[in-house]
Write a structure and sequence with these properties.
The chain is an all-alpha fold. Helix content is about 55%, strand content about 0%. It has 4 helices and no strands. Helix 1 packs antiparallel against helix 2. The protein is extended and about 65 Å long.
Length: about 110
């Protein structure tokens, strides 16, 4: 078996001329903390590029799968308490969350 020309792990950096830096990272797996930091950096880059309006900024935080799971759990909880015909759509959930966020942002002076 021959040694790879570049390190197997993803921790090496590339110099401006395109050559890998001389710092050897070894063949170890990245730590869970390193993986988490990478995921956070990717999410930050995605959020910075997709937040053109309030709805797209919100959808960067919560995707459709997460919202559908909240809907499903809410309906299941309602049925557990006897509300058999109770339904919740994604549009209704988004409207409810928007009201909660608006209520938190807008303060009424009394």
């Amino acid at each position: 078996m021959t040694a790879p020309s570049q390190p197997v792990c993803e921790l090496y950096e590339t110099a401006k001329d395109g050559d890998p830096c001389s710092q050897d990272c070894g063949l170890e797996e990245p730590s869970p903390k390193t993986l988490l930091l990478r995921k956070m950096a990717l999410l930050h880059m995605r959020a910075a590029t997709c937040a053109d309006d309030p709805m797209s900024a919100f959808m960067c935080l919560m995707d459709r799968v997460m919202l559908q799971h909240i809907c499903d759990c809410t309906v299941a909880e309602a049925r557990r308490y006897g509300q058999v015909g109770w339904e919740l759509s994604l549009a209704e959930l988004k409207a409810f969350i928007a009201l909660l966020l608006a209520r938190g942002v807008i303060t009424v002076c009394t």
